[in-house]
Design goal:
single chain, 5-stranded mixed beta barrel, about 30% helix, Rossmann fold, 7 helices, binds hypoxanthine, globular, 9 strands, alpha/beta, about 25% strand
């Protein structure tokens, strides 16, 4: 009999998880990592790595963004079994909110309880500096989309859930501790996510500042909503790759974003692996 349409997404997650379980071959990842623009090289530090292209996982979209390799990497980081996405899926690539969130639900299906999601972001807060990291304390979802819209009401998880402490204060405290010990400059701030792919206008940046946003980029919110939908603990880490448009006369561009990420790779790896080690 044809499957009831309301369970379609759940069935897709299970189908993808079955393929990934065969690939994981008994490994049980505890921590999921999403590595954003220019931050993929952390995957090279994963020990005993195994690789699986997104294209080999049913119902996963492929990554088309520059510097996003588009594969899963499983192995050990900071002594813990991890499952990393070397590259992510963005709305601006043409993916629906559910397609962006799909790998998060998939990680959860595989038993991952903690998600560390990372990106490069522009600083709206004028006291931040390029090269700082920013631990997300909260977000403003300005993508206009929500991945839980249209999900089957009972197939994955209940559709009405709280976004209080969506970014786990305990994980943030650990990350702050690691940063302090290792002399890594970190800020704690509110992240604003939008669809892109155009960068913002200076007027938008001024408006976002008035709303209380400290950083801005084109990812993360949809992933975090999906993670909270199924009860995963989340830590969000941005690398400040540039000052946002109009801040100190800045005009962001993708080359600068990747250059700064390459320059800050060492501290980024130390921060993330230090956090994972202490979970
Ligand atoms: N705006 C939006 N997305 C970004 C930025 C920015 O300034 N920097 C890196 N990703």
């Amino acid at each position: 009999m044809a499957e009831a349409p309301r369970n379609r997404l759940k069935a897709q997650i299970e189908e993808a998880a079955a393929v990934m379980e065969r690939w994981l071959d008994g490994r049980r990842p505890e921590v999921g990592l999403i590595l954003g623009s220019g931050l993929g090289p952390l995957a090279e530090r994963i020990e005993e790595p195994a690789f699986l292209p997104f294209a080999d996982v049913p119902h996963m979209q492929e990554s088309t963004a520059t510097s996003h390799v588009g594969r899963f990497v499983s192995g050990r980081l900071g002594g813990k079994p991890v499952l990393a996405m070397q590259g992510r899926l963005h709305g601006y690539e043409g993916n629906s909110a559910q397609q962006v969130a799909f790998p998060v639900w998939l990680m959860h299906e595989l038993g991952v309880g903690t998600l560390v999601t990372t990106n490069a972001a522009g600083a709206i807060n004028e006291s931040y500096q390029v090269g700082d990291f920013c631990l997300m304390t909260d977000h403003i979802n300005f993508t206009g989309r929500n991945p839980v819209v249209g999900t089957d009401p009972d197939g994955i998880a209940f559709r009405f859930f709280s976004m209080l402490d969506a970014y786990d204060p305990r994980l943030r405290a650990i990350a702050n501790e690691v940063a302090a010990e290792r002399g890594i400059p970190v800020q704690n701030g509110v992240y604003l996510g939008l669809l892109g792919p155009s960068f913002e206008t200076p007027a938008e940046i001024r408006a976002f500042r008035a709303w209380g946003a400290d950083t801005v980029a084109m990812s993360v919110c949809e992933e975090v909503i999906a993670a909270r939908h199924v009860g995963m603990a989340v830590c969000g880490i941005s690398l400040v790759s540039n000052m946002a448009c109009g801040v100190e006369g800045a005009s962001p561009n993708d080359v600068e974003v990747l250059e700064v990420a390459a320059r800050r790779e060492g501290d980024f790896c130390a921060l993330v692996s230090g956090l994972v080690e202490r979970l």
